[in-house]
Amino acid sequence: MDTLTAVLIGSAIILGARILAHILKFRGYFELIEVPRVRETTYGLHRVVFPTFDVACMHKYGRVWGKYEGVTPHVFIVEPELLKDVLVKRFESFVERQYFPMEDKHRSLVDARSDAWKTMRKALTPLFTSGKLKNMFVNMHSVADEFMDAIRAHLKTSDVVDMKPLFQALSLDTIANCAFGVNTNSFQRPKNSLFQRCQDLFSDMRVKNATESALLLLGSYFPKVLEWIDLFGLENFEYLFNTTRDIALERQESRGDFVDKLREMKSECDKGKGDLNEDQIFAQGVGFFQAGFETSSNTMTTLMYSLAKNPKVQESAFEEVKEVLKETKGVVDYEAIAKMTYLEAVIKENLRLNPPVTRIDRTCMKDTMIGGETSPRLKLKKGTVVQIPIYALHRNPDFFPDPNTFKPERFMEKDESMGDMTFLAFGGGPRVCIGMRFAMSEMKIALAKFISQFRVTDTSHTKLDLLPGDSFFLAYPEMKVRIESRD
Q1: How far is CA 93 from CA 29, 97, 183, in A?
Q2: CA-closest candidate to residue 344, choices 330, 329, 324
Q3: Largest interatomic CA distance in the chain
Q4: By the 8 A CB rule, do 292 and 354 touch?
C-alpha cells in the first residue's frame, strides 16, 4: 500500500468516525432523562398531519415525550409547570428559537436571537400601546368596510363563499395600511405582488412531496445543507425586506406609524447610535408580515367554520354586537369592542381549538434543570429543542374538559388559562406575541361588522381538512360557507 492510499483510507476512517460521532452524540438522551421516546417514523413529512400527530402522541405518551429530529433531540411538553419554567422562569436559558436557515438580515423580532431580540423587543414595544392602537382604528375600519363590500360583491354571483382569500386580503391590507401607510387594495387586486408573496411565504413552508421530505431529513442531520438548498421560499423574505426598505426610504411625510419608527431607528443608526444595524432595522418589516398576515387571517377563517357549526354561539355573538352597536349608534370604536366580551371569548375559543400556530419552540442554550415542584424534574442538555405543541395542549381534557366542543363560556368566567400556560395561542413569557392587541382589535372590528350584517351557515362544502406537511401552521385548502344577509 503506497503512502497516498494509506492517507486516503486514514482520512476516510477519521471522517466516517466524526460523522458517526455527530449522528450519535445525543443517542440515549431520552432514556437518561426518563422521557418516553416516540417510535413512530415521520420521515415522510409530506404525509404527516402534524397537529393530529401531536394529539396522538400526547394521548399515548403523556404530558412529556421526546423525538429525534435527525441529530437533535426534541422534547415535547404540555405540562404547565414545565412550560412556565421554559417560557418564564428559566427564560434566559431558552431565549432562542430553533435553527432556521435564513440570512441574518432577514431575522426580525420573530426569528432574532439573544441580545438582538432583546434590543428589537425594547425598540418595538412602544408601537403597540393603547394610544397607538387607537390611532390605527381609522385604517382598520376602512379596510373592514372594503372587506364588507367584497362580501356583497361575491353574493351577487353565489351565496357560498370561500372565506380564506377574503380574510387574507383583509389581513394584508390592514397591515399595509396601519403599519406601512400603503393601500394595497387586495380585494380588487388579488394578484398584487405583495399579496402573492405573503401567501407564498406560508405555503412554501409546507413540505409538499417526497423529495422535499428527503432533503429535510438530510438537513436534520447536517443543517448546513439547508443553507445551500432553499426549501422554504427564502426569496419571499428578501422581497418583503426590500419592500420595507423601499417604503421607508421613499416616504416624505411622517405618519407616526411602524415605518416612521423604522426611519427613526435608521437615523440613529446613521449617526452611529442605537444597537441595531440597517439590515436588522428593515428586517422588522419582514417580521410584521410574517407574524401578522397568516395568524389573523387564519383565525378569522377557521372562525367561520366554528360559527357555521355552532349557530347558537353565532346568534349569541350577534345579539351582543347588536346591543353594543345600539349603544354606540353603530360606531365600532375602541370602547365598543372593549364591551364585546362574548365576541372576544368566541375568538379565544376558536384560537384554542384551531390555533393558527400549532407549535412553538425554544432552544436550550445551556444545561438547565426544569420542573420539580408538582411535575417531573428534567435536566435538559444544551442544544435540546423544546417543542410546545399548542394544538395538542389546547385539546388536553385535563385543562379543557370536553376539549373538542366549541364553548366560548370557558373564557367568560375566569380567563386564568392565559396565566397558567394552558392557553398559548399568542405564545407566553417575554416572547409572547408583541402584536396580540393589534390582532385582537383588527379581528374584533372586522368580525363585529360582519356578524352584524351577515349570518354564516353550514353546507356540504364546509370542512376544515388539515393539510399534511406543515409543522408550524394550521394549513387547509379552503373554507367555504353559505352567507345570508340579516336584512
Answers
A1: 19, 11, 42
A2: 324
A3: 94
A4: no
Q: Total structural domains in the chain?
A: 1
410 within some domain: yes
**Which residue segment(s) compose the domain that 73 sits in?**
33-485
> Does residue 142 form part of some domain?
yes
Entry pTM:
0.92
**Residue 389 is assigned to a structural domain of this protein:** yes
Report the CATH number that the domain containing residue 373 is assigned in CATH.
Answer: 1.10.630.10
Here the cell at position 304 is 367561520
Q: Is residue 239 part of a domain?
A: yes
One digit per residue, the tens of pLDDT, for the chain of length 487 reads 577 666 666 666 665 656 555 455 667 788 888 899 998 776 789 999 999 999 999 999 999 999 998 888 999 999 999 999 999 999 999 999 888 877 888 888 888 887 888 889 998 998 888 888 888 989 999 999 999 999 999 999 999 999 999 999 999 999 999 999 999 999 999 999 999 999 998 888 899 999 999 888 888 888 888 878 887 888 898 999 999 999 999 988 888 889 999 999 988 888 888 888 899 999 999 888 988 899 999 999 999 999 999 999 999 999 999 999 999 988 898 899 999 999 999 999 999 999 999 999 999 999 999 998 777 789 999 999 999 999 999 999 999 999 999 999 999 876 454 448 999 999 999 999 999 999 999 999 999 999 999 999 999 999 999 999 999 999 999 999 999 999 7
d(CA 209, CA 250): 41
